[in-house]
Design brief:
The structure is a single chain. The protein has helices at residues 43-49, 99-102, 152-155, 161-171, 187-198, 213-219, 230-235, 282-286, 299-312, 326-334, and strands at 2-9, 18-25, 31-41, 66-73, 85-88, 91-93, 114-115, 135-139, 144-145, 179-183, 202-207, 223-226, 240-245, 260-268, 290-293, 318-322, 341-345. The chain is of the alpha/beta class. Bound molecules: NADP nicotinamide-adenine-dinucleotide phosphate and zinc ion. The site of NADP nicotinamide-adenine-dinucleotide phosphate has 29 residues, from α1, α4 and α5.
Length: 356
């Protein structure tokens, strides 16, 4: 049994997103059936819609920063009730028994996690479709609670931008006395600043954009460094314990490595692909420094991050759009023209005459 659902999809790497009707399964005993209220727009949605990583399957319904309301639950669901506000991020399932899953690190599932869109369901083999749609169904193990008090639209980006920056901050034990730098002030970057600041770190932004300085300070940055200004880069040599690099495309890492302190780590979360130009090992060897990578975060860690955000009054800075504006939003995102996350109000999908 399936249900017809409205959404927006890309039909190929070169076509704009357009209305699309597709099928969702009826809830299984462990499933939560969710009406989607808001969905954040991640740069990964754009990479996937354009097949930048080479593994997109079309039609593709993007969206993995999902906030919704529970409308039904399967007979075995114990953690959720109809009417509650819940979230779904980048994954909807994993093998549940490999070494990574057993540690709550489902994002590193050895068998590969089931992504919220563009994957095949582990049980029925149906394609998964994301949050640019009116409803979604997922096993309760991959659904998180949205704590009371968080603005629902502003909380949507926490499900990817929030957890993707929170996970390395926690893994590298950032806290009081830590010096953290963030490269790029976009969706991920602005969450990294807010979260690092709330963890009591001293926070620096590396940016190409001089006009973002005031915003960066308002968001919590103690310092702003223009990455193309060699004098400013020299001033922060040997400074940072952790650099979170959110740049979405190839860029030279060499200017950043001397700014790491002894034992410091630059963690890539933005670029998925080859590093170019090549990275010199000299600062790595002479300063026992590391270049690392990190992907999203586990489900328990995502719930911890949401609870932390509720306790600290943290949400994303957002610009709410209608689903019909999604292609223009992608164009603006390519120009880094968003402050600092687009969030789709999914009520717009119900607008007269605009359904598929
Ligand atoms: P975004 O909102 O577009 O922000 C990216 C920022 O990077 C821009 O605001 C800009 O900041 C900087 N930037 C853009 N182009 C650049 C260039 N050519 N050279 C140097 N800096 C540049 O993107 P996002 O949603 O934060 O996502 C960032 C990346 O993370 C994407 O590639 C996305 O796919 C990836 N991602 C990874 C994970 C993961 O789990 N690892 C999760 C989510 C997203 P300034 O103007 O300040 O320089
Ligand atoms: Zn994302």
């Amino acid at each position: 049994m399936t249900t017809k659902v409205h959404g927006f999809a890309a039909q190929s790497a070169t076509e704009a997103l357009a209305p699309f009707r597709f099928e969702r399964r009826d809830p299984r005993p462990d499933d939560v059936d969710i009406e989607i209220l808001y969905c954040g727009v991640c740069h990964s949605d754009l990479h996937m819609a354009h097949n930048d990583w080479g593994w997109s399957v079309y039609p593709l319904v993007p969206g993995h920063e999902i906030i919704g309301r529970v409308v039904a639950v399967g007979s075995q669901v114990s953690r959720f009730k109809v009417g509650e506000h819940v979230g779904i991020g980048c994954m909807v399932d994993s093998c549940q028994h490999c070494a990574a899953c057993e540690q709550g690190l489902e994002q590193y599932c050895e068998a590969g996690n089931t992504m919220t869109y563009g994957s095949r369901d582990r049980i029925d083999g149906m394609m998964t479709y994301g949050g640019y749609s009116e409803k979604i169904i997922a096993t309760e193990r991959f659904v998180v609670k949205i704590p009371d008090g968080l603005n629902l639209a502003g909380a949507a980006p926490l499900l990817c931008a929030g957890i993707t920056t929170w996970s390395p901050l926690r893994h590298w034990r950032v806290g009081s006395g830590s010096r953290v730098a963030v490269v790029g002030l976009g969706g991920l970057g602005h969450m990294a600043i807010k979260l690092a600041k709330a963890l009591a770190a001293e926070v620096t932004l590396f940016t190409r954009s001089a006009d973002k300085e005031a915003d960066a300070r308002r968001l919590g940055a103690d310092h702003v460094v223009l990455s193309h200004d060699e004098a400013q880069m020299r001033e922060v040599r040997n400074r940072f314990d952790l650099i979170i690099d959110t740049v979405p495309c190839q860029h030279d890492l060499n200017p950043y490595l001397p700014t790491l302190a002894l034992d410091g780590t630059l963690v890539l979360v933005g670029l998925l692909g080859d590093l170019a130009p090549s990275v010199s090992s000299v600062p790595l060897i002479l300063g026992r420094k590391a270049v690392a990578g990190s992907v999203i975060g586990g489900i328990a860690e995502t719930q911890d991050m949401l609870n932390f955000c509720a306790a600290h009054g943290i949400t994303s800075e957002i610009e709410v759009i209608r689903i019909q504006e999604i292609n223009a939003a992608y164009e603006r995102m390519l120009k880094s023209d968003v402050k600092y996350r687009f969030v789709i109000d999914m009520a717009s999908l119900k607008s007269h005459g605009e359904k598929a």
